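Good day; I would like, with your permission, to put a structural problem before you. I would ask you to consider whether the tokens describe a fold that such a sequence might reasonably adopt. The full record is reproduced below for your convenience:
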Amino acid sequence: MTAYLPGDDARARYMRIDTAEILKRFHFCERAIVKAQAGWLAGIPLLGAKIALGKHLWEDSLTGDALRTRVFELRYPSRLLEVGSDAPVVGLFEDSIQAPNALAFMKALTEVYKPQLLGAYRDYLAIADAIADGPSIRFLTMAVRDKEAQIEALGQLTGALEAVSSEDNRCAADAWVTALQQRSAQVGALSLEAPRPVGPSTAPSDSPFAIPDVPARDSAFHLCRFYWPNVIDPTFSYGEGVNLQLRSAVSHLNEVWAIETGGAVLAAFADRLDWEFMVDAARWTYDEARHTNMGYERLTRWGFTPAELPLGTYIYDSARGQPPIIRLGFLHYFETKNIGKKNERAEAFASYQDSASQHDMEFDWADETIHAHYGRKWLDALRERYPEEIPDRQAILEQCDRLVDAVVASATQEDLDDIRLVATSMIEKANRQAG
């Protein structure tokens, strides 16, 4: 009998292909949650939740991307990535987008989906081989930190949303989460083990998910269509000094439309374009969330309360009833339309000794150069892939121009009186503070 050196070692529990199968399962679950969070951005009213989810879905896309890359490394030379036998648990995660209301979606993230991802990652790290699988350990360690912070933030945001939700919505949300937990128990939840085979996924929802044409907005703010008078009144200029500081901050705050639109675009094209599109769109959406937060932070630091701040909808409204490609066109349209003004305004803020506004404008400029590239890249990619359906980029931008002009032309005297009063009050308060 031939003798061999001992090779039984706990770190060899999962072989290369076994490891790739687990990480593949994780990737598809992350992918589903990225798409769901993106799709729900326009339907969640709280501004803080829109900003937070914009960040969360970007973090999740990075984890999903690292998982996907690692699977390809372990399966080389194969580039095939299919759900396969993981369909029961992936289907559970894909059902997340079918939540009956915003509170149900937030509660499901907080109590079902993010905790399952966190638990699975912790379990993986507990058994992973630090020698052979060091790359996975590194990015999953970062993913655990992300998920822990996300769950804490989601808990607070979900509590705030629940406090302002109707009794009917609270009951529907509780029923939705209970149904998901029951299905998760049938499947076996997300884990290191393959899910148990079950019947087809049946999301407990009355109707398929659709991107809302009317965005849900935070009632703590002054809700309006047009967020500054100059949008509909050319005699009310941007101005300079305090006026320019305020107008810039309000413009940043109102990039909430771009958070919502970035999410809508990601969700709409996730299944029609490559994974690379989801990564780019997630970053684009996160950047818009940062820009919104820039404006909100500056305005609150200057002493303004949400009730004093206008939150408009006219840009999001301009794409109402249009196909998703027009929403992507709007993102690209406004990036390329305004990018040339950023450096001039940064210089003006420097002359006012307003380093915060200068700082935000400079970073905004850097982001928008990236976004202009994204817009060209994916509008052209869609045109190339679906030439019978997608117009060329210039035609899309011209259509965006016409649509926004039509909404601006629909402004009423009531719209103008309302936003003039808000802007004038803000300017007067700012001038008193400036002394």
